[in-house]
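Ticket #4471: structure output looks truncated?

Reporter: J.K.
Steps to reproduce: submitted the chain below (369 residues) through the standard prediction queue, then opened the result file.
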Amino acid sequence: MASIPSDVRNVIASLGVRGVGLSTLLTMGHTESLGAMGFPIAFKALTEWERRAGDAEIRCVVPMDAVFPLIDILGEGARTVDDQRRANLLLVISRLADDGTCSIELHPVEVKMRSGDKASFPARGSQLLADPKDHLDSTKRDLEKLGNNMAAEGGRLALVNAALGTLIEAAFSLRPGRQPGQVHLETGILSRVVAGKARISASAETLFWFQVDAVGAGGGLYEQRAGGAREAGQFFANPKCSNDAERLSQVGEQVAEIVEQAVALEIVKSSDEDMDTEDRQLALGLGDGGTGADEETSDKPIDAREDDSLPSDDQQIAEKNMQSSDSKLWRRNKKKRSHLVTGWRKLKRRPLVSTCSLGTVHVGPRWSR
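Returned output as attached by the reporter:
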């Protein structure tokens, strides 16, 4: 028993370096204190993924609590997310590009730790996975909106760029093994972020499920399940894996693969990619149930004003439909712009001091482009 206090101190110290405070540990898992132990296992499992960063790339694992206030502001327009309905971790991949810009990829990770009341990991589609899926979906909506908002503004708002720079520098600061040689790389990335030269993307999410005394379908201590654009990648493991160096190395390899597969599935590429199905049909000139597969010009709307082959009555109907479609798209885009302006105005109502290594931006009562 004498070693238990020192083990507890080591766990708390290691998590503190990562930015996980006591308040997070106490709320993690709600009434189950066991849930807090999922954090150190997750950090160990992600070590290999962090090491795989390229020469012009920095990979970070950030507790969501440490950066969520900034994400909430920059992601204005997404659905309201309850404090307990968000992912536990945010993976941030920052990469310099040769064209004078940089790319920032945001990837949510949910961590669950369960006791050994069942002998096997939950099956795909199990109701046990519904709750973590809700956490991931809520966070993903915020990250998607953040990326779309930033793309819509095109880097023109200095204050917003500074807020994003603060988020990225926080991610850099919470790496436990920062290399002195990476200072130049960090500075290069931050300078492009605050200059509005960053491309933001969000990727499909990942679930870590740790379960005491559980085994996979083949009797192994861990199991990997690939995800997709609409489904989280899933990694299940028995916590015993973290106590054995060889098994932990194998787990790290598996985790790195499943996260890299998910990160490759970008779900935000431009400011207009959050159009719903009806928007896409209107933009393509397709009616309900139409596919446009048999038409050579199915990738663009039919403009009756330029099509003399249509009979006069049909021409008038087509022109009227197109005007209606244009009007609906304009109203929808106007609503999106309204949400975006409302979000940026939140920064005006919240006195902040946004600080990064390149300087300090003081947010006063008013700001403008």
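Triage note (M.O.): checked the attachment and the full token line is present. DSSP finds eleven helices and nine strands in the chain.
Status: closed, working as intended.
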